[in-house]
Amino acid sequence: MVKILLVDDNQDFLDILKQGLSEHEVFLASNGLEGVETYKKVMPDVVVMDLKMPVMDGIRATKEILKINPSAIIVGGTAYTELQKDLFDAGAMFVLIKPFSIDSIEKIIEKYVLKKRPKTGYYK
């Protein structure tokens, strides 16, 4: 099971993502500041970060999370295609343009989280 932090000020969007990612442990935050605080508490494997939010935007929140964990996997999500470079510059590993699919998040999880985890079990 992968821990995913979803940070977005659109509650309907969060609910859809959470439902689509239900096989994982999903945490929600409605603004960047709440996202940073939640990150500190749960240390998720992946963060999906909106760009424009109240209290603290996604760019500042991304930078704050990377101060906590420089190897954090942060996926930016925005409808503002002209601002995607700002998310990359802040340190996002990927930027998905809204509306994006659950499958696009699953592919990132598969490639960058699950494939790096050691196999567990007994070997003969």
Automatic annotation (TrEMBL):
InterPro entries membership: CheY-like_superfamily, Sig_transdc_resp-reg_receiver, ST_Response_Regulator
Keyword annotations of the record: Phosphoprotein
GO biological process: phosphorelay signal transduction system
Sequence ranges assigned to domain Response regulatory in this UniProt record: 3-113
Annotated CDD domains: REC_hyHK_CKI1_RcsC-like (cd17546)
Keyword Transcription regulation set for record: no
Protein name per its UniProtKB record: Acetoacetate metabolism regulatory protein AtoC
Classification lineage: Archaea, Methanobacteriati, Methanobacteriota, Stenosarchaea group, Candidatus Methanofastidiosia
